[in-house]
């Protein structure tokens, strides 16, 4: 039974991170705990993530290559020598290292180089390594770019999830084109919760079967990376949900896609504030500790999804539901543009968060001019291509493993 190590994971407190980890393990072991591969996920919150990923049969271990101070209370305390010994034990039993993470390899968050450590250590020991479904760059300086290129050149498989990254690594960084393939985010393959489970959540909120609704997935952390004031962000989101309720005449469900133990990134806080500011049961916060699959099932029944979390948007898009994004980086633009294709104007599906908060016409256009039916029709045509690309990554991984 091959042993596979997954790196690039932070914590399944973010349902986007859970969607990545779960999708990869599900594809490696489609029969769950009876799968053909032993998969270990390196994470900052191992006990929490082991529970979240239990249906897949994956094991979870505190990441010995990247130790985050902000999650130190949720992982064992280890000395440098203990971490080194555990790194050696993990790699001694590893047949393949898969790096995920979506957009770790950029200067946007300042964490790019640390998440190369597991790959570097594996490559030094002759263990095959792959990166799948990445967004890459931009890098502010040459050192991070050079570190990433050194690792990329030694990978057995490298795929990116959108054309913006493909052009960047080939045209800007100079990676030979034959070394990188255009693919899709692995979360396009995430399985959704059962229809019965989704119906139970919606019924708890007072929604009748088949009742239409709009979903808005706000990001508590987006102001941290966009330098936008929290009060202005909250006011803009409140205007958005108010406009949807009045114009579309249907409820708005707020989707807190990140349940972070760190308040600066916990979407439940922001969702509660939006609902309180609106002050009517027409705006509802999805309750409880829902999983990435639960959220996908709920997003799959929406008329439209507006998301500040990329993987909430992917949960909708992968279900054939039109989604537009409010973002702060090129990853939003790239993934949505790739999903809809050239026939859709990017300006209509991706709004910069500062423009969203500062220009009232942005909300007016989003609510009044979004052609949800047209976007849905385009998704029906494009989705087979997008999911086939993601499936191809795992066919190539199985080939690497000799399956």
Can you offer a commentary on this structure?
- The protein is an alpha/beta fold and 403 residues long.
- The chain has 16 helices and 13 strands.
- The chain has helices at 15-28, 46-52, 80-92, 117-124, 142-152, 163-172, 195-204, 222-226, 230-248, 267-278, 292-299, 310-317, 330-340, 353-358, 360-369, 372-400; strands spanning 3-7, 38-43, 59-62, 96-99, 129-134, 157-160, 181-182, 214-217, 252-254, 283-285, 304-307, 323-327, 350-352.
- The strands form 2 sheets. It has a 7-stranded parallel β-sheet with strand order 3-2-1-4-5-6-7, with helices on both faces.
- Helix 7 (195-204) crosses helix 11 (292-299) and helix 9 (230-248) packs across helix 10.
- It is globular.
What share of the residues does DSSP label as strand, in percent?
Answer: 5-15%
Average of the residue pLDDT scores: 93
Largest sheet: 7 strands, parallel
Task: Give me the number of helical elements.
Answer: 16
* Radius of gyration computed on alpha carbons: 21 Å
Number of strands: 13
Q: Considering DSSP H and I runs of 4 or more, what fraction of the residues is helical?
A: 40-55%
- Record the strand order, biggest sheet: 3-2-1-4-5-6-7
Question: What would you call the quaternary organization?
Answer: single chain
List low-confidence stretches: none
């Amino acid at each position: 039974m091959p042993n596979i190590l997954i790196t690039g994971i932070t914590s399944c407190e973010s349902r986007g991170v859970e969607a990545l980890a779960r999708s990869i393990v599900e594809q490696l072991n489609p029969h769950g705990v009876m799968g053909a591969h032993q998969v270990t996920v390196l994470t900052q919150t191992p006990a929490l993530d082991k529970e979240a990923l239990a249906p897949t049969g994956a094991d979870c271990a505190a990441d010995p290559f990247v130790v985050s101070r902000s999650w130190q209370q949720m992982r064992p305390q280890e000395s440098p020598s203990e971490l080194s010994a555990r790194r050696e034990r993990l790699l001694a039993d590893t047949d393949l290292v898969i790096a995920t993470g979506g957009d770790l390899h950029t200067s946007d968050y300042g964490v790019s180089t640390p998440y190369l450590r597991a790959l570097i250590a594996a490559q030094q020991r002759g263990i095959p390594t792959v990166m799948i479904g990445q967004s890459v760059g931009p890098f502010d300086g040459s050192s991070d770019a050079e570190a990433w290129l050194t690792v990329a050149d030694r990978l057995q498989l490298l795929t990116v999830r959108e054309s913006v990254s493909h052009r960047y690594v080939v045209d800007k960084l100079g990676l030979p084109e034959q070394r990188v393939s255009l693919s899709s985010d692995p979360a396009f393959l995430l399985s959704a919760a059962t229809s019965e489970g989704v119906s139970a959540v919606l019924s708890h909120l007072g929604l009748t079967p088949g009742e239409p609704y709009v979903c808005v997935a706000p990001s508590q952390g987006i102001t941290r990376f966009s330098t936008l004031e929290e009060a202005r962000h909250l006011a803009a989101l409140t205007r958005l949900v108010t406009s949807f309720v009045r114009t579309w005449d249907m409820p708005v469900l707020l989707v807190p896609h990140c349940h972070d133990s760190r308040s600066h990134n916990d979407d439940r806080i922001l969702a509660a504030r939006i609902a309180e500011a609106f002050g009517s049961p027409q705006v509802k916060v999805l309750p409880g500790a829902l999983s990435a699959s639960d959220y996908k099932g709920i997003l799959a029944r929406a008329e439209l999804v507006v998301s500040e979390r990329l993987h909430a948007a992917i949960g909708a898009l992968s279900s054939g539901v039109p989604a537009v994004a409010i973002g702060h980086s090129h990853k939003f633009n790239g993934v949505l543009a790739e999903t809809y294709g050239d026939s859709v104007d990017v300006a209509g599906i991706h709004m910069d968060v500062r423009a969203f908060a500062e220009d009232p016409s942005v909300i007016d256009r989003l609510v009044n001019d979004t052609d949800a039916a047209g976007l849905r029709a385009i998704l029906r045509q494009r989705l087979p291509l997008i999911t086939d690309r993601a499936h191809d990554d795992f066919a190539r991984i199985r080939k690497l493993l000799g399956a």
